[in-house]
Design goal:
With about 200 residues, this protein is of the alpha/beta class. It has a single domain, classed as NAD(P)-binding Rossmann-like Domain (Rossmann fold), CATH 3.40.50.720. About 40% of the residues lie in helices and about 20% in strands. The protein is built from six helices and seven strands. A seven-stranded parallel sheet has the order 3-2-1-4-5-6-7, sandwiched between helices. Helix 4 (about 125-145) links the parallel strand 5 (about 100-110) and strand 6. Helix 1 (about 10-20) crosses helix 6 (about 175-190), helix 2 (about 45-55) packs parallel to helix 3 (about 75-100) and helix 3 (about 75-100) packs parallel to helix 4. The longest helix has 22 residues, at about 75-100. The protein is globular.
């Protein structure tokens, strides 16, 4: 398959690139500061240009999304809008603009996260964004068939515990290898409207 990988230079994106390449897929990488194509998917015009440059693809895989963290009493309306634009709307636009540009039975795999179901202090913007995106996936799946859309919703990566582990007290981490296999399941399988929680 020809796969468009968004967020290819991050921790997860790099692992996905290796995994998908090893499985024999042609992977076209996209990131703000690196990859085959350098674009910012929070800009709808740049999403359109990504698809123009990529040409027809079989699957779109997203490992990109940024949200601010902070106490509810300190986060501003602009912070919540930034979370919505940085993680939700950007990925919705990948689907919205991608529907006419991917294969008839192509797929989209988006990234959410554990905070949709297991909130933490300072994580309300992330919880909002992840929950909204998961609701979108379930709704979009019933409209875009035979194309498919799923989301991968991991907890903190084992490989990132040193940096982020303190923010997720008591939550079991997940190995990147397990997260990448959830993406493989979404891309190569037949399910749609699924949230793969890890």
């Amino acid at each position: 398959m020809k796969i468009l990988l968004i967020g290819a230079t991050g921790t997860l994106g790099a692992a996905l690139h290796r995994t998908l390449d090893t499985r024999g897929h042609e992977v076209l990488t996209v990131a703000r500061g690196g990859g085959d194509l350098r674009f910012d998917i929070t800009d709808p015009a740049q999403v359109s240009e990504v698809y123009d440059r990529a040409g027809r693809v079989d699957a779109v895989v997203s490992a990109a999304g940024h949200v601010p963290y902070g106490p509810v009493t300190e986060l501003t309306p602009e912070d919540y809008l930034a979370a919505f634009h940085g993680k939700v709307l950007s990925q919705i636009d990948l689907v919205r603009q991608g529907i006419p540009r991917i294969a008839e039975r192509g797929s989209f795999t988006l990234i959410t996260g554990v905070l949709a179901r297991e909130p933490i202090p300072t994580g309300s913007a992330a919880s909002m964004a992840n929950g909204a995106l998961e609701a979108f996936v379930r709704a979009a799946a019933i409209e875009i068939a035979p194309q498919r859309v799923n989301a991968v919703s991991p907890t903190v990566f084992t490989e990132s515990l040193g940096e982020y582990g303190d923010y997720f007290p008591g939550m079991p981490p997940v190995d990147l290898a397990d997260v990448t296999q959830a993406y493989v399941r979404s891309v190569e399988g037949a399910q749609t409207g699924q949230i793969y929680a890890l």
